[in-house]
Amino acid sequence: MNIYEIKAEYAAVLDAYSQGLDEAVDEETGEIIPLKDYLDKLEGEIKEKITSVALFIKNRQAMVDAIDNQIKILKKRKESEQQKIADAENYLRQATEEHNFEDKDGRFVIKFKKNPASVQIAKGAVVPPEYLRRKIITEPDKKALKAAIKAGKTFDGITLTQAIGMSVK
I need a surface site. Which of 18, 89, 136, 160 has the fewest CB within 10 A? Predict the structure, then answer.
């Protein structure tokens, strides 16, 4: 049985117990047992299922944490490899540009071309106002909306919800 089925069974047996019945038939074994013992058995099953699910959650969280750790390690490794590529490209550029070297080999081609001109702005440089552009971002102010709803205002399609968080440690 799953937790919901056990809880439903527990509620039914508890109802029978509160109505004065003393015994019940164990559905698994077919034996007649006192209701109090059956309630204890169901309670134990509920606790066992809850423990099992909680441990499953902890196990999955440990897996997520391990994956996050591996992602961090791989990101550092990727950055290191990208830096090695950049260093090798700079080394190759210096070695080939100084000697006006172009080579075509069956495995690679080295060519040089002029890129379009780009503007570089040094730190602390003052850009004249006529060369500035403004980006405007419009987004809902959720804190203000929350305060307004709590104060009694209503808005179409906007509601205040209260979630219940759960933590398994």
Answer: 136
